[in-house]
Amino acid sequence: MAFSRCLAALCLLWLFVAGRAEVTDTSQAIFDPAFRSLKVTLDANEFAPPVITLGDPLSRLTVSFDELGDERRFMRYELIHCDAFWQPEGLVASEFLDGFNEGEVEDYEFSRATLVHYVHYSITIPNREIRITETGNYLLRVYDESNPDETLLQARFGVSDFSAGVYAGVTSLTDIDTNRNHQQLGLTVDLQHAAGIDDPFNDLRIVVSQNGRADNEVVLTAPQRVLGDRVIYEHLRPLIFKAGNEYRRFETVSTSYPGMGVENISADTPIYNMWLYTDSPRGAIPYSYDSTQHGRFFVRESSSSRSDTEADYVMVHFGLEMPEIAGADVFLDGDFVQRRFDPVSRMVYNRATGRYENSMMLKQGAYNYQYLTVPSGSLQGETAPVEGDFYQTVNEYTVRVYYRPRGGRFDRLIGVGMIVSGN
User: Fold this and answer.
1) Domain Type 9 secretion system plug protein N-terminal: where (predicted)?
2) Which of 166, 173, 246, 312 can bridge 114 by disulfide, Cβ–Cβ 3.0-4.6 Å?
3) Distance between CA atoms of residues 79 and 102, nearest Å
């Protein structure tokens, strides 16, 4: 009976996804290479999910980024309301906000005492021009005033009324193995304070992400059962995740001495170079706990209290020593590459050194990263080939609950929950 329920849920999920319209790229991304260090932060809490509480004047979100160079660029931004899959819903601005749907990027500061010059920009939502009136997913698109059709970068965030409670548990006793390579979630959505939801089997969508990754995100369109106000999702195969491994870490907070994970520093060029210790596969090594930021990065300069404008940019060199993997690419994963599989995050195999290599200019700080292997023709990264999968891994799962009644024009975000495995 349990298997039949799981199969039915999977079929519903496949039918729903197969019927979607052509996908627009609405991932969080930087499209202009002059821009760096895109971050979305809620109430100055770098660990909180980027979800504003609707109607709370103290709930504010900041989108920040840098542009390399000495001159301020005149830019504007706009908000786009998106569905649970982050596709634009075609709403007019008056349907989801008061005020204007766009604004000027006004807050900026020039870098101070850095080898690499840059301008630091920030946008705060809500503000005097934009007041959001509906829950849901939002895409913030930034563009040059002189060329509004070309997107420079875009950031994702959510707005919720938190009318639905989210309760979740994580176990390594999964429906496919026990204390081996996977973790399984069980979810309960409490609709006691969410008025008007008469058909949770058809009107709710649940989205579950692991450590902020989008490539292995799971969408549920039907619960296992409903008991009164409680909507239950248990023993569903889509809620079984490969456990992965703890994120790797490095720190570039000082240019005077090597930080964590840094083997060597060189300042003989116009930019500091930092070579990380050469990495190697960890799948055959016993699991070892390490403090984790779940893929985040924090801008920090050890001698400054104004890291946003006084942290320098350094060239960071990554190396992964292992045989080349046939039929697949290896990518860096973490917030610092916006979780995208693209040329910026791709590791290039150097047959002369027997290593995958990548170099990129990053702002001083503390970074989490891992290596994901993406088979040819696939859009999903695998942890097993380089990092391994260990049931003990501390993973952060975020659950988002969306509601759209029959005939509704958009997806409402009515609940958000976060759970860390092992806690």
Assistant:
1) 36-159
2) 312
3) 7
Q: What is the mean pLDDT of residues 98-111?
A: 95
Q: Classify residue 383: in a domain, yes or no.
A: no
Nearest-CA neighbor of 225 among 252, 186, 256, 264?
A: 186
Domain limits at 329? 248-375
Give the domain-ending residue among 121, 136, 159: 159
Question: 207 near 221, Cβ under 8 Å?
Answer: no
Measured CA distances, 414 to 52, 202, 278 (Å): 12, 15, 45
Residue 398 contacts residue 49 (beta carbons within 8 Å): yes
Tell me which residue has tokens 């008007």: 196
Are residues 166 and 151 located together in one domain of the fold?
no
Residue 381 domain flag = no
- Calpha distance 276→316 (Å, rounded): 7
- Please provide the average confidence, as pLDDT, over all residues in the chain: 93
Nearest to 127 by CA among 145, 90, 155, 101: 101
Q: Is 0.85 surpassed by the pTM of this model?
A: yes
pLDDT grade for 31, boundaries at 50, 70 and 90: very high
Do both 179 and 294 map to the same domain?
Answer: no
* Buried b or exposed e, range 76-106, using 16+ CB within 10 angstroms: ebbbbbbbbbbbebebebeebbebebebebe
Q: pLDDT tens digits, residue range 40-71?
A: 999 989 999 999 999 999 999 999 999 999 99
Confidence of residue 422 (pLDDT cuts 50, 70, 90): confident
